[in-house]
Every structure is written in C-alpha cells, then in structure tokens.
Amino acid sequence: MRIHFSMAAMAAIAGFLVLQARPAVADDSYDVAADRDRRAAKARGELGARTSVTTVEGVFVLIGPPGFQGAGFDQSVALVRNAMAGYLNGRFDRKPSEAISVYLFPNAQGYERFCKARYGAPCIAHYGFYHPADRSMVMNAGLGLGTLTHELVHPLVESDFPRAPTWLNEGIASVFEQPVIPRPGEIHGAKNWRHPRLRRALTSAEKEHARLDVLFGMADETFRDDAEDLHYAMARYVCQWLDERGKLWPFYRRWRDTVAVDPTGEKAFEAVLGMTPAAANTPWTKWVLTI
C-alpha cells in the first residue's frame, strides 16, 4: 500500500529545527523501560489523565493530548511505525538507546501552550522541533505529518552518525517531509514545497551559490545563515537526487564510516558516484530543473 502524505499546508517557510546541543551519554544504570514509564507519567501530569501514550521501537514515546485521539493519533502512530521500518532497513544502523518523548498537538494553540509551560517561551519553530537536551520532539501535527517523519531522522542521525554536518542531517530529514512508503520497510521522498526556492536560485544570479559542491565542507553556522532557506532546499534535493539513484545510503554509510579521514565527505561521494561533487553539479542541476 502506498502512503503519501500531503505537505500543501507547509508551503510557507522552513520551520523544522533541531537544536545542536548533544545530550550526555547515559550511564550504566540507565533503564529505558523505567524512563518510558516516567515520560508517560510526566506527559499525563502535564496534559491530563486522558492523554494517549504509545511506544514505538522501544524508545519513541508518542504522546497525544486530549483532543488528539482516535484516528488522528492512530494515523501518527502508524506513520512512525512505517517510517521506522524503512529507516532501519538498510539505512540507519543504530537507533537511539534512550527514550524520546514525541508530543503531538492537533493545533497551534495546544502546541504553543505546551512550549510556554515546558520551556517558558514560545515554540522555537512553527511546525515542530527536536530538543536533544531533554530528548523531546514537540510538534504541531495539525500542519501535516511530514513534520513527524522529518524530526524522527534527527535522533537517528545523532545516534548513527554523530559527526554528520548539519547540511546532511537536515537534507536527509527534509527528504522525508514528503514521505512515500510504497511497501513495508521502504521509504523515499517526493518533490515538495522547497523546490521553488531552489529553482529560483538555479535560474538567477544566485546559481553560483546553489551549486551541489557548495554543501561539501559547509560549516554548520553557514548552513543556518541568512540563506538558510536556500541551503535547506539544496541539501534536500541533493539527498533526493542521490536517493532516486540508489546512492544516498551507500554515500551516507561510506562517509559515516570514513569521516575521520574524509571530514567533508567529498571522497565518499566520489567513491560512490564515480564523480566529484563539482562534476555532479551539472547533472544534478538539470534534474532539479526538470522534475
């Protein structure tokens, strides 16, 4: 069965965020089952006794407050199960070893109310975010479940490739803002709302700043500068281009395994693609302009 989630409601600005601070490694006394129970109890204390709680893959504690139950919450749970089946099938080798709370709110009001109560401030992103310091994902599911499949990638990258640069982390996550799950254990991404921004750059004076090879060696701080929306679009469509050619995960895994001697990933890219990032810019640009 093909599952294809619409992102039409998300065609405004980039609103996904992962905070960069890494959580401390758990000591030998860490008990994941006890942590899951503690997180469930805390959620019910925060949101009410009727809060729905379901665990997926032993670590993701999905939390649906009163008002987001029944079909809406069930659809979110099903999506996480289907997405994780794909993510852990020949893609990521490791999943998080510690429990993560996933708060799903049906509208902006509940989403913002929670952020103010938990963090003492408005939510830091419009659609959702992952906060590694307390291992929590918080999102406004009312804007689309693509937020969920995006944010799930961040703790997977954190566990599987902790030295991954922001462009790769966000690029892979952004591919799955528009998830396509054609069969169990398989997941890909379709063209989404980031495409027009990249197309504009590639057909204007910005094109020299939108080259595929610009990403390689890009500092995390540069990724999030004033051109962040363009950088997201570039990273997203580089990763989708690679995935459509069956090269994303061989590239990812080779870079992950050789990052100590290949910090920019250029050697891994050339080994897998048979061309340098600079040489790949021409076929990648042609593809972007024709999809």
Automatic annotation (TrEMBL):
This chain's source organism reads: Labilithrix luteola
Keywords for this protein: Signal
Q: Which residues form the signal peptide?
A: 1-26
Q: Which domain of life is it from?
A: Bacteria
UniProt name for this protein: Glycogen branching enzyme
